[in-house]
From TrEMBL:
PANTHER family per the UniProt record, alphabetical: METHYLTHIORIBULOSE-1-PHOSPHATE DEHYDRATASE (PTHR10640)
Record text on cofactor binding: Binds 1 zinc ion per subunit.
Gene of this entry: mtnB
Record-annotated Class II aldolase/adducin N-terminal domain positions: 16-207
InterPro entries, A to Z: Aldolase_II/adducin_N, Aldolase_II/adducin_N_sf, MethylthioRu-1-P_deHdtase_MtnB
Cofactor(s) this protein cannot do without: Zn(2+)
Pathway(s) this gene product operates in, as recorded in its UniProt entry: Amino-acid biosynthesis; L-methionine biosynthesis via salvage pathway; L-methionine from S-methyl-5-thio-alpha-D-ribose 1-phosphate: step 2/6
Binding site for Zn(2+): 107, 109
Record's protein name: Methylthioribulose-1-phosphate dehydratase
Organism: Paenibacillus algicola
The enzyme's E.C. designation: 4.2.1.109
CC per GO annotation: cytoplasm
């Protein structure tokens, strides 16, 4: 689908969703500095031809300006003339959209997702079991166990993007870059937000459980 064929209403809707989510996450302190990025897909999806709105690089996400976002194509290139630059990690969004067909991707940096991804980095995944918020991923088994993929935090973003297809698990809507941050996605902005909040709860839970286990007197 050509970008010119996407309706103005859909483009404006995507930008409004991004603004609402950005404002909420900024209030939670999930965008330290100018970190993090958010995107919402627009138009029909095809693995070889799709578009999405994404936060522009280097912007203060606690503020709102007309230049907070831009539209890009399936290769992460601007879909229309603009002086704005897409987030440095746009290629990772491209791969997640291509592999999952999702409708929105949210990436934030928090202390908990940094610490936990570093703690389990050598294992290549963050293990979580018997945590109530696992149900947010539509996993309802009693004492459910999941493994959240952890990728190395290379300085070269294309090197990270190449690894994404090999670790994606369609039942786990998230991947973590080691000591960097979480990417969570969903069929739409609402679902991606729900998934991200669940991951952040899980990371905080795991961190605090490690502290409690370490403080427990030996028997």
């Amino acid at each position: 689908m050509r970008f010119s064929e996407i309706t103005l209403e859909e483009k404006q809707g995507a930008l409004q969703e991004l603004r609402q989510v950005k404002e909420l996450f900024a209030q939670r302190g999930w965008f330290p500095g100018t970190s993090g990025n958010l995107s919402v897909r627009v138009g029909e999806f095809d693995r070889e031809d799709f578009h999405f709105a994404i936060t522009a690089s280097g912007k203060d996400k606690s503020a709102h300006t007309p230049e907070d976002y831009l539209f890009v194509d399936q290769n992460g290139k601007p879909a229309q003339a603009t002086a704005l630059k897409p987030s440095a990690e746009t290629l990772i969004h491209c791969e997640i959209y291509r592999e999952t067909g999702c409708g929105a991707i949210f990436h934030v940096h928090t202390v908990y997702n940094n610490l936990i991804s570093e703690y389990y980095g050598e294992e290549g995944f963050v293990p979580a079991q018997s945590i109530e918020l696992i149900k947010a991923f539509n996993i309802w088994e009693e004492d459910a166990s999941i493994a959240i993929p952890v990728l190395p935090n290379y300085a070269d973003i294309p090197s990270i993007a190449k690894l994404v297809p090999g670790v994606l698990n369609q039942t786990i809507p998230g991947i973590v870059l080691r000591n960097h941050g979480i990417y969570a996605w969903g069929k739409n902005a609402f679902e991606a937000k729900r998934h991200l909040e669940a991951f952040e709860f899980i990371f905080e839970y795991l961190y605090k459980k490690l502290l409690l286990d370490a403080a427990r007197p030996a028997k």
